[in-house]
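Let us practice reading a record.
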Amino acid sequence: MEQIDDIFVCVDCYHLLEIGDATYFDGVYEPEMADQRIYECELGITRLVEIFGDTSKLRSSGKEMDFSRFPCQCCQTKDAGERYKFMVYQ
């Protein structure tokens, strides 16, 4: 496989993409906000699947990146915070 791109995602999307754990949201957000964030992240993952074909082409670098003011490239949240690097393979 050949690496074709890098994307940087927020901690919420990281938990769904890498760990597949939606229970994370229950401990971080109030119930209504947790549902909203899960929905936003799932929409972002659907968008990534449309772009790259499927999420199996995404591999986490396993490292938390520095603080960023750029939007998450998955859910598009504009909230500043940590980003996690995923490498995209073809």
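A brief commentary: The chain has one domain: 3-89.
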